[in-house]
């Protein structure tokens, strides 16, 4: 048995969307739906005063989703960990739709529980 982790970078994003918590909430909602995930409560958000960048984390019964935006670089870093394998979400389409990403890089990491 193993878990699965997606490490996603999005570049060329709309800087305004990267400072808009509602855009990120909509992205998290879409990811949760596509991946059939189960939040344990409300997502926690923090917006940085100087850049407007936002960090968000949602605890899931499967593990977590976390993101950090860098509007000054038009980029977002996203991490999703699930305790068991599942089908991929369409990360590229979602990040283009919600954040206007021009380029999306996805690394998928198998996380084995035993050596």
Written account of the structure:
This protein is α+β, with helices and mostly antiparallel strands and 115 residues long. The protein has a single domain (2-112), classed as S-adenosylmethionine decarboxylase, CATH 3.60.90.10. It contains three helices and six strands. It has helices at residues 15-18, 21-34, 91-99, and strands at residues 2-11, 44-47, 54-59, 63-70, 75-82, 103-112. The protein has a six-stranded antiparallel beta sheet, covered by helices on one side. The longest helix is centred in the first third of the chain and has 14 residues, at 21-34. The model has no long low-confidence stretch (mean pLDDT 95).
Write a short abstract of this structure.
With 115 residues, this protein is an alpha+beta fold. It has one domain (2-112): S-adenosylmethionine decarboxylase (4-Layer Sandwich), CATH 3.60.90.10.
How are the SSEs placed, and which strands pair?
Elements: E1 2-11, H1 15-18, H2 21-34, E2 44-47, E3 54-59, E4 63-70, E5 75-82, H3 91-99, E6 103-112
């Amino acid at each position: 048995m193993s878990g699965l982790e997606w490490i996603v970078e999005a570049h060329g994003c709309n800087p305004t969307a990267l400072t808009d918590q509602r855009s990120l909430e909509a992205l998290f909602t879409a990811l949760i739906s596509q991946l059939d995930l189960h939040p344990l409560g409300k997502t926690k958000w923090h917006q940085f005063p100087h850049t407007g960048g936002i960090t968000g984390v949602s605890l899931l019964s499967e593990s977590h989703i976390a993101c950090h935006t860098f509007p000054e670089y038009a980029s977002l870093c996203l991490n999703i960990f699930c305790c068991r394998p599942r089908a991929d979400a369409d990360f590229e389409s979602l990040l283009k739709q919600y954040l206007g990403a021009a380029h999306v890089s996805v690394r998928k990491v198998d996380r084995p529980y035993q050596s």
